[in-house]
Design goal:
This protein is α/β, with parallel strands linked by helices and 227 residues long. It has a single domain, classed as Vaccinia Virus protein VP39 (Rossmann fold, 3-Layer(aba) Sandwich). Helix content is 41%, strand content 20%. Strands 3-2-1-4-5-7-6 form a seven-stranded mixed beta sheet, sandwiched between helices. Strand 4, helix 6 and strand 5 form a beta-alpha-beta unit. Helix 2 crosses helix 3.
Length: 227
């Protein structure tokens, strides 16, 4: 993860992050969908940790709902941007956080798991931080061109990693976690949705309802820790 940490710690990457991914009407819809999916999977009460919070998109949405949330990111520029929303924000390693075990009702990590070749260290730390019966919420890529090669690495960083739904179920079983919900989404890369005119983005979104779930490139997961 060293190269990822260095890349996302660059101020120019932080400054361009939201516009690059969520700029324009179509991009705004991509961002809106991601936040909606994450919020729908989170429990209705209790303290939440936004792990690898990035620019704080999800943290701000949780604050707007009046939720109790703590944000954490390794990148100082990212954490500073999140803290500007008034959120309690910590600069630390997502794989070795400074919090005591069982500190949160839920731990959520948006747009982070697919940077990890092996999900065990991330899920192990999320599991440690969640109370018994608490929830782990994250998203993965089932497929992506960037899993094969780094496209424009100066803008996007190094490649991402695929994690098939079957591998998530297997890993959950091994770790004593229960898969409570899986939400496949985005027929193509979200960045393609962001680039096209808004009517085309809407057509892509509508098309998702008429094709097999296995065709989707991302999945949002809700796992429950053991009681």
């Amino acid at each position: 993860m060293k190269d990822k940490r260095e890349f996302y710690s660059r101020p120019e990457i932080t400054n361009a992050y939201d516009q690059q991914r969520f700029g324009g009407r179509s991009g705004a819809r991509v961002g809106e969908r991601e936040i909606e999916l994450a919020l729908a999977l989170l429990p209705g009460n209790g303290k939440i940790l936004d792990l690898a919070c990035g620019t704080g998109r999800l943290t701000r949405a949780l604050l707007n709902e009046g939720r109790s949330v703590v944000a954490l990111d390794y990148s100082t520029p990212m954490a500073v941007k999140t803290a500007s929303s008034g959120a309690s924000t910590v600069i630390a390693d997502a794989f070795s956080t400074p919090f005591p075990s069982a500190s949160f009702q839920a731990v959520v990590s948006l747009r982070f798991a697919f940077h990890c070749p092996d999900l065990r260290p991330l899920l192990r730390e999320m599991q440690r931080l969640a109370v018994a019966g608490g929830h782990l919420v994250f998203d993965t890529y089932s497929w992506s061109p960037r899993a094969n090669w780094a496209i424009a690495p100066g803008q996007w960083g190094s490649r991402v990693y695929r994690h098939s739904p079957s591998s998530i179920h297997s890993l959950a079983d091994q770790m004593g976690l229960t898969v409570e919900q899986a939400e496949p989404c985005f027929l193509f890369s979200p960045y393609l949705y962001r680039l096209v005119p808004f009517p085309v983005e809407q057509a892509f979104e509508a098309l998702e309802n008429h094709v097999p779930a296995s065709w989707m490139c991302r999945v949002f997961w809700k796992l429950r820790s053991g009681s």
